[in-house]
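Provenance

Sequences were taken from public entries as deposited. Structures were produced by running a predictor on each sequence independently, with no templates supplied. The record for NYN domain-containing protein from marine sediment metagenome is shown for reference.
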Amino acid sequence: EDNQWLYDRLESEGYEMVYKEISIVNGEVKGNIDPELVLKSMTQYRVYKEAIIVTSDGDFACLVEYLIKKNKLRSVIASKREKCSHLLEAASGTYICYLDDLKDRLRYYKY
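Predicted structure for NYN domain-containing protein:
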């Protein structure tokens, strides 16, 4: 709910948002969308021009490798360099960037 404005804006710009019910396991929120994102990205790669994957999760390394081979990967955006999976970094190569490196360029200023 807090980020609904962001989701609405992304959809208005043409991004497809995939929502998934979450569950709480041992006090931790789980939304396990990994298999869905990988399957949809791989089976529908002819439908989209480029993919931007926002994750720090090494489970997406195989998807990143696949998209690079298909010339479909635009970028991988990870949150923090120190929290990013080494598998994802290795698979992404020069395609990866980190939000903590981009925060000054992405910061919103109200004038």
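Residues 32-106 form a domain with the Rossmann fold fold (CATH 3.40.50.1010).
Residues 24 and 92 are 30 Å apart (CA to CA).
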